[in-house]
Specification:
Layout: H1 15-21, E1 25-28, H2 30-33, E2 39-47, E3 52-58, E4 63-71, H3 85-100, E5 107-108, E6 115-122, H4 127-137, H5 141-144, E7 160-167, E8 171-172, H6 181-202, E9 214-218, E10 223-228, E11 231-236, E12 240-244, E13 252-254, E14 257-259, H7 264-270, H8 283-294, H9 304-324, H10 340-353, H11 360-368, E15 375-378
Parallel strand pairs: 1-6
Antiparallel strand pairs: 2-3, 3-4, 4-7, 5-10, 6-7, 8-9, 9-12, 10-11, 11-15, 13-14
Helix pairs in contact: 1-3, 6-9, 6-10, 6-11, 7-8, 8-9, 9-10
C-alpha cells in the first residue's frame, strides 16, 4: 500500500538546482558515498517513515549517522512503494540549510545535525549495512520499533538510494531519564531557540517534532550560543546538548522557493485513531491539529505548527518529571533559583501560555528569554 503524501501541487521544484546547491553527488556507488574501509562497525538504530538509519564508527573513533532512503520504483518482493526524488527534496534541502546554522553569522543555532555528504547512490545494498539490518531485525530493538521495511538487498543493482551522512547526535529523548527538572527547562530553551532561529532564517516549520525526533547527547559545554540577526544569547546545557532531526515532513523557504510536501495522507491515517484523554501527550493528534490550521494549503507559512509541537514536548516533559519524580511536587518553597521546584513551576508557567503565541520566535522573545536563569542575553 502506498501511504506517501504528495508534493504540493502549487510548488515548482527544480530538482537539479537543489541537488547542485546541496552538493549532491549522483549515481555513485556505496563505496564512494561512504568509505567503508575507514569503518570498524555499523549498526541499524531505527526506521523512519521512508528510510533507515544506521550509525557507524570510524577507525579514528568518531561516530557518524547514515540515513538511507530507496528512491523511485517499488520493492521487487513486496508492495512497498518508494518515495520519488521530488518527494525527498524538502528533506535534502532542509538538512543542508539547517546544518549551515551551526556555522552561520547572522543566524546561528547549534541544534541541528552537521551534514557531511548527500549522495544519490545507484548500487546494490552493501554487505556491511545488511549485516546491521539483520542484527536489528532479529534483535530486541525490533519490539520497540514495529515499522517494517522490506529487505534492501533484494533491490536490483540499478536501484537508487538517497544517503545523508551526518554527525552523531545522541539518543532519542524518550530513551533518556529526566532526573533533573532544570534539564527539562534547558531542553525546552534549546528547542524553542533553535526553531526561532530557523523560522527567522528560512520560514521553517518542522511539522513532525515528536520525542523520537529530539536527540540528547552528553556535552562538556556549559552553554550554547545563538544568534538572530543582532540578538545574541546563550542557553545553559545542564550537561546535555539537544538536537532536532528528521525533516521529511518539514516546510522551508529558500531562494524564493517553498519546499514542502502535503500531509493530507498522513492526516487521513490519523482519523481512525481512538481519542485520548490528553491530546497533547499523543503525537498523532498533532497532525490533526495542524490540519485544522492548514486547510490543505501546506505550502503556506504557518509557524503555529511549531507552537503545536512545542506544546506536545512541554506536556510530555512535565508529565514525565512529575510521574517519575513524585517528590518534586512535595518540595518546600525554593531556597535558591536552581531549586528543582522552581524549574517545575517555570515549565508549568510555559505550559499554560505556549498556545497564546503564534510562532517559536514569539514564544522565545516574550516568554523563554524572560525570567529564565538558564539564558544569558549578550549586550
Amino acid at each position: 500500500m502506498n501511504n506517501q503524501p504528495n508534493i504540493n501541487s502549487e510548488a515548482s521544484v527544480d530538482v537539479e538546482k537543489v541537488l547542485k546547491f546541496c552538493n549532491v553527488k549522483s549515481e555513485v556507488n556505496f563505496a564512494d558515498a561512504v568509505p567503508f574501509w575507514k569503518q570498524k562497525s555499523a549498526k541499524k538504530i531505527c526506521e523512519g517513515a521512508y528510510g533507515e538509519i544506521y550509525s557507524f564508527s570510524n577507525v579514528d573513533g568518531t561516530r557518524r549517522i547514515l540515513k538511507c532512503i530507496p528512491i523511485n520504483g517499488k520493492h521487487p518482493m513486496s508492495s512497498y512503494q518508494n518515495i520519488s526524488l521530488v518527494m525527498a527534496v524538502p528533506d535534502i534541502i532542509s538538512s543542508k540549510l539547517l546544518s549551515d546554522l551551526n556555522e552561520g553569522s547572522i543566524y546561528v543555532a547549534p541544534n541541528f545535525p552537521m551534514i557531511y555528504s548527500i549522495n544519490l547512490v545507484q548500487d546494490r545494498f552493501p554487505e556491511l549495512l545488511m549485516t546491521a539490518w539483520w542484527d536489528y531485525k532479529n534483535g530486541p530493538d525490533r519490539l520497540k520499533d514495529p515499522t517494517g521495511h522490506p529487505q534492501p538487498d533484494k533491490y536490483p543493482e540499478q536501484q537508487l538510494f538517497l544517503t545523508i551522512e551526518s554527525s552523531y547526535c545522541g539518543e532519542p529523548l524518550t530513551r533518556n531519564i529526566l532526573q533533573n527538572a532544570w534539564l527539562g527547562v534547558s531542553i525546552m530553551s534549546q528547542i524553542v531557540s533553535a526553531l526561532a532561529v530557523a523560522e527567522a532564517a528560512y520560514n521553517f516549520e518542522h511539522r513532525d517534532l515528536h520525542l523520537e525526533n529530539i536527540l540528547v547527547q552528553n556535552t562538556k559545554a556549559v552553554s550554547l550560543k545563538y544568534t538572530m540577526q543582532n540578538k545574541h544569547f546563550s542557553v545553559q546545557t545542564i550537561g546535555y546538548h539537544i538536537f532536532i532531526i528528521d525533516f521529511t515532513l518539514s516546510r522551508i523557504y529558500h531562494d524564493k522557493n517553498v519546499y514542502c510536501i502535503e500531509l493530507d495522507g498522513i492526516i487521513k491515517k490519523c482519523e481512525s485513531k481512538e481519542p485520548v484523554d490528553n491530546i497533547w501527550f499523543d503525537h498523532m493528534s498533532m497532525y490533526k491539529i495542524m490540519a485544522e490550521y492548514s486547510k490543505s494549503q501546506w505550502d503556506k507559512y504557518m509557524p503555529i505548527t511549531n507552537i503545536i509541537w512545542l506544546k506536545h514536548i512541554n506536556e510530555n516533559i512535565l508529565n514525565y518529571l512529575e510521574k517519575n519524580n513524585p517528590h518534586f511536587t512535595k518540595l518546600v518553597p525554593p531556597v535558591d533559583e536552581h531549586d528543582q521546584m522552581t524549574a517545575i513551576r517555570l515549565l508549568r508557567k510555559w505550559n499554560d501560555c505556549i498556545l497564546q503565541h503564534k510562532s517559536a520566535t514569539d514564544l522565545l522573545q516574550n516568554v523563554i528569554l524572560q525570567d529564565n536563569p538558564l539564558i544569558f542575553v549578550h549586550q
